[in-house]
Predict the 3D structure of the following.
Amino acid sequence: MNNSIGFFDSGVGGTSIWKEVTVLLPKENTIYLADSRNAPYGEKSKEKIIDLSIKNTEFLLNQNCKLIIVACNTATTNAIHLLRESYNVPFIGIEPAIKPAGLITKTKKIGILATKGTLNSKLFEQTSEKIGRDVSILEQVGDGLVELIEKGEINSPRTIDLLKKYLNPMVEENIDALVLGCTHYPYLIEEIRKIIGNKIQIIDSGLAVAKQTKNILQKLDLLQQNNPLLATTQHVFYSNKNSSTLRSFVDHGNHIKIIEHDF
Ligand code: DGL
């Protein structure tokens, strides 16, 4: 089916997921909605996050998307159950990968950096309860990081200072796995690595989401059928704020179209 895979996020972060999906499924057309005007979602009430997720979903459904990737941990953990109940289209969500981290840790201490909205959600609480009792989860809200990444500040002094403040205590507590529970944070991996060194494993969920998307498209017989030349594949990005950061994160190919749109 030639219809596009739809993505939405509170802004540019979900492009870290979009990249993994387009590598695994290079013939699929995509439409990405960056709701940057409303970033950060992580500071908003559950009701507001649900309202925004509905608005984004309806925008993508109006573009006939065949599957929607909620490329945002905060929207997934607060709203995906309602989206699945309300719309007749498959949804793929993204949640902090604390289960895999719980399986690999030897020090029995894992760290998670995520938004307040994700860490306070019911879904996160339920997942945390499934981790073995012998594993401690050190939770840290990444206050201010999403705003800086939205401005393209991935290695500015302000960003590095915040990262040090959030990560150094976890390193001192001897974590050996760090879960990135926000799709904006993979853009900080280089700086994070400089702070935490090489012994702590960094875990994000992008590849798992891409594999899951492929499985679901296959299972529902929704994969792109016409086998077109890759040159005809289309990637359209909608942004409701200045799109320069978005452009700097994704504009590395010839088939990208970025539209500033008031939604
Ligand atoms: N990318 C979103 C996430 O994964 C950022 C949330 C926010 O806007 O606070 O949680």
